[in-house]
Amino acid sequence: MQWFALYVKSRHEFITNNELRKKQVVTFLPSFKLWRQWKDRRKLIDFPLFPGYLFVHIHPHSEAYLNVLKTRGAVTFVSLEQKYPAPVSPDEIDTLKILLDSGKEVDVYPHLKEGTKIRIKRGPLKGAEGIFLNKEQDMKFLVNINLLGRSVGLKIYADEIEDA
Hints:
Oligomer: single chain
Helix content: 10-25%
Radius of gyration: 19 Å
Order of helices and strands: EHEEEEHEEEEHEEEEE
CATH architecture of the largest domain: 2-Layer Sandwich
Number of helices: 3
Structural class: alpha+beta
Shape: elongated
CATH class of the largest domain: Alpha Beta
Strand content: 35-45%
């Protein structure tokens, strides 16, 4: 048995994970919890550490691959060579599990550095571009956006921004 990374449809990580478990496939979906704020409530939500991916522990043969790929939300295996899924080191999986079990806060957006140009992905300011200033607790980012000749600072959740 080996670990393989499976690419899944957008926002289908938990759905595909549950479907695979129903098929008795051993999976690992590294995730973390974040507080999300809506107008009327605040809730702790699970987010995948690697959006669009999860790991499966299967025998490296075509029937096992096909069984996984026939699962709702599954797209393809991560491959280095065309048509051959690339195994993931068990040490890497173990390290991820240790990291997540440690309870330490994981920086899931390490590529965003102060001064990076960003774009807002959703909400009333969708499409607005600005500059990432700094990161605060609960994965909120402070962003500076120039609107109508003025500089406006706002706090926004990390999953609502992307590199511009």
